[in-house]
Design a protein that fits this description.
The complex is a heterodimer of chains A (91) and B (93). Chain A is built from five helices and no strands. Chain A has helices at 22-36, 42-50, 54-59, 62-76, 84-88. Chain A has a domain at 41-91: Nitrile hydratase, beta subunit (Cyclin A, domain 1), CATH 1.10.472.20. In chain A, 55% of the residues lie in helices and 0% in strands. Classes of the chains: A mainly alpha (91), B mainly beta (93).
Chain lengths: 91, 93
């Protein structure tokens, strides 16, 4: 999924504001910390988001996309083992 | 800096599979340089864990909205401004 912007659509645009959930604030903080530590930069974060299967991308919320990318990039770098998060969550 | 403000430029339409910041809706389109920003690390290599050096010149390019979306229902004079790196630009006749 790359370059979603500019696609024609007849779907209405949801302009409503919403309160951020705790996990969304934590995700933002996590990406900020990983950036300051030099583990992930914003271009890698974007590449990870673009690697999502299109149907998952369309279904995911903004910070769900960040989480998908963080897991993909950290796994690619060997910081996380493949499936490590799922295993810790007992899935 | 290869281009200057006011110059007509065309965005390359070449395929690019990797991460890049040039939106598809301006590829192959002609606009004009509104501003020469500066040089910045290249996101196309930074996205793969490299340092993005050498830095690449970045320009603010303005396009007529109707050139990008002919069915646009906005004001005829509406323009859209996009940041484009130099290696995506060509001189427009």
């Amino acid at each position: 999924m790359h370059d979603r912007g500019g696609w024609p659509t007849d779907a209405p645009i949801d302009r409503s504001e919403h309160e951020l959930a705790d996990w969304e604030l934590l995700t933002d903080a996590l990406v900020g910390a990983l950036g300051r530590q030099g583990v992930i930069n914003v271009d890698q974060l974007r590449r990870g988001i673009e690697s999502m299967p299109p149907n998952e991308y369309e279904r995911a919320s903004y910070y769900e996309r960040w989480l998908y990318s963080v897991e993909a990039i950290l796994t690619e770098k060997g910081v996380l083992a493949p499936g490590e998060l799922d295993a810790r969550l007992g899935r | 800096m290869k281009y200057r403000a006011g110059q007509r430029v065309r965005v390359a339409a070449r395929p690019h599979e990797g991460h890049h910041r040039t939106p598809g809706y301006v590829k192959g389109k002609t606009g004009s340089v509104e501003r020469v920003h500066a040089s910045f690390p290249n996101p196309e290599t930074r996205a793969y864990g490299r340092d993005g050096l050498p830095k690449q010149p970045l320009y603010l390019v303005g396009f007529a909205q109707r050139d990008l979306w002919p069915d646009s229902r906005g004001h005829p004079g509406d323009r859209i401004y996009v940041d484009v790196f130099e290696h995506w630009l060509e001189v427009a006749e």
